[in-house]
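Me: I'm a chemist; would you kindly supply a protein sequence with its structure tokens?

Assistant:
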Amino acid sequence: MKFRTEIKLTSQQEKLINHNSKVLLLGSCFSENIGNKLAYYKLNTLVNPFGVLFSSTAIAKVLEDTVSQKQYKANELISQGGLLHSLHHHSDLSAIDSINVLDNINQAQKACLAQLKMATHVIITLGTSWVYGHVLTNQLVANCHKIPQSEFEKRKLSILEIEAALERSIKNIRKVNPSTQIIFTVSPVRHTKDGLIENSLSKANLLSAIDIIKEKYGVSYFGSYEIMMDDLRDYRFYESDMIHPNEVAINYIWEQFSKVWIDEKAQFYFKRIASIQQSKLHKAFQPNSMEYQEFLKKLAVKQSQLEKELNVKF
């Protein structure tokens, strides 16, 4: 008897991620879940330099700005809650004065462009089809920054609109890096504030649009959404909010991602890397004891050896 409906994922035969790879991740908070795992195992990774972005249009906008090296100006910022914000970026880039905000955006674009030019893989996680249009400036935004809702119009992007946004993203990526492997995924986080039916329709539009562009542009799709909804369809795999995947679920999805996208040789090193990472977190009761000093010496030797083998830094 089987008590789960396991998703059958097709293993990739080429362009796998290893310790020589460079990975750029953009999109929803699920990008950070996968990105943090990649970084933990010492893979060259840049995660959400512009902060969390949920919609296809927001991701297309930051990629377009990055590739064109757009220079934002102070009059493009908006004031709210004692801070200045960009409507096209997460509040991580906000600050109390325009100089710092513009510098944060500029630095994020530089970091993104540098990683994009060298990236072997670009992973984009879409969160929702629901978007907000800023009425005054007549533009779709990435973040409302707690500005009164009366200043925005909410609507759901059509499949055609999402397809167009994804095409913009792909074309801008390939302008600077024609050979990079682009992987799309849909966040398993349900946007319950939109309503459960509305969330389902939203995810359906994302999945349909990705399916259309997948063959057209030779990009890939990883089914994190399907793994969560169909394989791990039990509330024991959720945080207490019953919305976000918990650590067990994230680890399971990471395992499935590793099987499909991580090179076997790279996976071979994961246990040794994890051993060093866990040892570095160890706190001694007696830091000056001979036993602990010996522990540190052995750890330093293991770390140095692994750094030479993989050309990485802990």
